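Re: Re: ligand-bound prediction request (bumping)

Still looking for help on this. To restate: I need the protein modeled with thymidine-5'-diphosphate bound, output as structure tokens. Inputs repeated here so nobody has to scroll up.
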Amino acid sequence: MNKSDCLCRVCSSTISDIFDFGNMPIANNLIPVINDTYTKNEYKYNMKIGVCINCSSLQIVNVPEKELMFNNQYAYFASQSEFMKSHFEKLGNKVMQLMDKEKDYILEIGSNDGIFLKYFADKQYKHLGVDASENVVETAKKNGVNALCSFFDEETSIEINNKYGKAKIIVITNTMHHIENCQEVAKGINNILAEDGTLIIEDPYLLDMYKIGSIEQVYAEHNFIWSLHSYKTLFEKHSIKLFDVEHFDTHGGSMRYYFSKQNLNKTSTMQEYINLELNNKIFDINTFIKFQENCINISKELYNFVVSKSKEGKIIAGYGATAKSATTLNYSNIDKNLISCIYDSTPFKIGKYTPGTHIEIKDAKLFTKDSPDYTILFAWNHKKEIIEKEKNNKSKTIWVEYIPKLKLTYEN
Ligand code: TYD
Ligand code: ZN
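Reply:
Sorry for the wait, this slipped through. Here it is.
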């Protein structure tokens, strides 16, 4: 596929440049057993990301079928992190202030295992969650959350509108960047958001990704990495206007966006970030080219480190079987021959194998006993929580970080 064949899904301009990652598996498609049936038939696709310098959006240009990514084997359960629970609890309290408990309801698109809507369910607020993956919807229902298993599109928005009416609040956290057909979602939101309602979106932020040169924000599920400018371009087409933003350090740097159908005053924070994006040249093709160079450097540095320690006979493990690390591991050719295993506390992941690289995922409870010489922190976005926890468990390892640069930490 040539760059001139690709049109930006936000503004329809021709994609300005493409970075080819080669063959990649689906990042969350963990393998249940290693045998010929699974490994030979493992689905791979040629992952390419493109940038549009007209609207600044960064997007995967050849997206696999969405059913291959979001299905009843979906491996991401948001409730695994205590920090993220508290992050969403704070947002929940803020949102409740905007709602009339008797009249209003909140709609969450991409409600996952109900981590966020549970606060609303517990306090008897009217709510509805929509998620495309059956297994996480089942978990949400078990948590007492009213949830619907569906992709959110115009048709779903009409069904929801018929049954529940217009939503006072629509929340989409860490989901909008997963959705290929962003125009369809924006249309659906326009149908269902109340005239005085607020749309709140939160996901990884382009400027942070460029800043740390994070190779990992890009994988098949992360169809977009958004910015203020690209979101403005998308939603203004559908009469929805950005009026405020909040920045967080979560997931390696995230932005929370507030939109309304009304013409609300734009906050000074929003203006600051608009200027920051311009000053950091998000419309300049060279920013994207520099990012590509960074990705290649990070990958080479990690590969060389792992190979050299492996030659010394050291045991190298990983911590956090993240979807993000699928890109690093596959792009860097670091597989089960170089990494002994990856520790993780998610019951669904334990005993399975990483996509493409077939590294065993072991229960994090075994980490202290196994005591690998080096542990690559794949869940680097939960660094504080994980290192603190394992320090309390008296584990002895040398932590290896690789973003933005290779760094060893001797905590013990
Ligand atoms: P996550 O932040 O969900 O990233 P991604 O979206 O790239 O998958 O991944 C965090 C992973 O780390 C998840 O599998 C759970 C695991 N984890 C632990 O094993 N222990 C912990 O203390 C924390 C915070 C996470
Ligand atoms: Zn564009």
